[in-house]
Sequence to fold (279 residues):
Amino acid sequence: MAVIRKLVDATLVIDNNVIGYVPNSLGYTEGLGEQKVRVQTSGGGNVQTVVSEDVSKKIAMVKFNLEPTQTNIDLLRSIKADLNGHVITISALGFTKTITGAVITKDYEVKFGMDEVINVEMEGNPAK
Amino acid sequence: METQITHILKTPLKIAKGGDELLAYKLILSAPTAKNREHLIRLKQTFFKAISLLRKSEDRPTGDDVAQSTSKDKEETLEGSQIITMLYMSGVDMVEFQNIFRNLLLQRLATVEDIPLTSYLMDQIDQDEFEEIIGEYISSFLLSSWTGILK
Fold:
């Protein structure tokens, strides 16, 4: 029976460069939005489901942590400053997801300490 | 002397540009300068070592063939593929040679769609095509000056 492998230790690429990140900190949301299921009735106990979609929520998000080094801080500053958007690719074991037009939305905090990391969140177009 | 050559990739590279992902076919290679001397010296040293090894071998094409085929009297010059074949046949460490060449290109001597070629993008290039690129680069920018020394 074939072994099923869990996706761990993914490669994070931002704008054609591989980025080193804190292990087990990388994650993403698909940006498929939120849907609501409601019901309409035609009487007599006959119901139909009605699905609606909130397209305003169709934003993909990528989260990862970086170590607070000079190189990483300079990298984050350049990414944050460029509002044209960036391309993020996450890949592992043949699995690949690409998020285009991504920007850092929040002002990330840089803390100094042995166990401190920088929490980065980027939002962009729905993942492909 | 040419300062740039264009290589059309057989398989396009997926590159990120302006927040979008697109396919790039044209790889622009630029001539090196003294700024890249560390890598150039090592490549040149390996090339001459290859010539020397070939000269010692009776069965293989000699280094004189290399020098003669790039003679200014002749219109033809060695093709990139011939250079690669010659290097392989000489027995020099081709892994090291290609790693040095790779690091040379990473010094912003190669661009796709005006984006400098990164290590990640270079890894997408097929190995055979990469060797073709090495051959073209040496043939276009380096061979005539290297073999001029052999005459």
Remarks:
- Residues 54 and 62 of chain B are 5 Å apart (CA to CA).
- The radius of gyration of chain B is 16 Å.
- Residues 69-75 of chain B have pLDDT under 50 and may be disordered.
- The interface with chain A takes residues 15-21, 115, 118-121 of chain B (CB under 8 Å).
